[in-house]
Design brief:
The protein has one domain: Alpha-Beta Complex (Spore Coat Polysaccharide Biosynthesis Protein SpsA, Chain A). The radius of gyration is 18 Å and the shape is globular. The N and C termini lie far apart (44 Å). It is α/β, with parallel strands linked by helices and 283 residues long.
């Protein structure tokens, strides 16, 4: 087994079918497994998953998303791990490129840009994360999207996800991995597809409080301001502010088929009207 995709899940029948079909499509021809860790869904999610012969279902109570991820990765048989949430997908070509990059000597993990869609699976923007982060960069931001990050099993084994967090555990995890040291490489081709929708886990779901992944950091300090400026300059120098002329990707649709999409000169930021709409829907 080469590749294990782990998906934490709870009452996600709206999205889990797209996720499962996407993994099946993107991984066609690979030695892979898709593990879904369900925390006790009651909306038909479990029944759907039990009918998928190529999905390993781990069902039972958990302490949240990161506890579920740890359960799935402990049970996984692959050498390479991917964390894909239920409302996310893989682009087939981007995933194939990332798996090839992981074959390069001494590479521990690979990340790339992320394609952002709305809840109707319409293109919003390309999150063009291509700068290899320094340890200081993760003090004030999450420099990679987990759906666009693949890593070797040994990376997770030396520091599993911190299960005490509900939302910010991946940020804490990436920060720790950077502190421990890993050879994280980037690619220009998008790997993951992220869906923005009103039902995503938000502060209102955990009592209205935001989790702070870096409580020991003064984000208003001069050092952090200098780090942000340095990151922006590096982003500019590697061409991160210049969109590709054409962005092509495959996304699974509600019809069950993969649709090939193409966007000329894709925008690199979320439209303001979409920000306002999402903010209003979460209040």
């Amino acid at each position: 087994m080469d590749f294990s995709v782990v998906t934490p899940c709870f009452n996600s029948i709206r999205w889990i079918e797209l996720c499962v079909h996407s993994v099946r499509h993107a991984c066609r021809g690979l030695a892979y497994e898709h593990i879904v860790c369900d925390g006790g869904s009651t909306d038909g999610t479990v029944e759907f998953l039990r009918n998928q012969s190529d999905v390993r279902l781990i069902s039972g109570p958990d302490r949240g998303m990161y506890d579920a991820l740890n359960k799935g990765m402990a049970a996984a048989r692959g050498r390479i791990f991917g964390h894909l949430n239920v409302d996310e997908q893989y682009d087939r070509r981007g995933l194939a490129r990332a798996l090839e990059r992981l074959k390069e000597p001494k590479v521990d993990a690979v990340f790339g840009p992320t394609i952002m869609l709305d809840e109707s699976l319409r293109f919003l923007y390309l999150y063009n994360q291509v700068v290899r982060p320094w340890p200081v960069d993760v003090e004030y931001q999450m420099p990679v999207q987990t759906c666009s990050l693949l890593f070797y099993r040994r990376i997770w084994e030396r520091f599993p996800y911190p299960a005490e967090f509900r939302m910010a555990g991946d940020h804490v995890w990436v920060r720790k991995q950077l502190q421990l040291g890993w050879n994280l490489v980037s690619q220009r081709q998008a790997i993951g597809i992220f869906t923005w929708h009103p039902d995503q886990l938000a502060p209102r779901h955990i009592g209205g409080k935001r989790e702070n992944p870096t409580p020991d950091v003064n984000r208003k300090s001069l050092a952090m301001k200098a780090a942000k400026l340095c990151y922006r300059i590096r982003h500019l120098l590697v061409g991160g502010t210049i969109p590709p002329r054409r962005l092509s990707y495959e996304v699974m649709t509600d019809s069950g088929d993969a649709e090939t999409c193409s966007v000329l000169w894709p925008r690199l930021k979320m439209p303001r009207r979409e920000k306002r709409r999402l903010a209003a829907s979460r209040n």
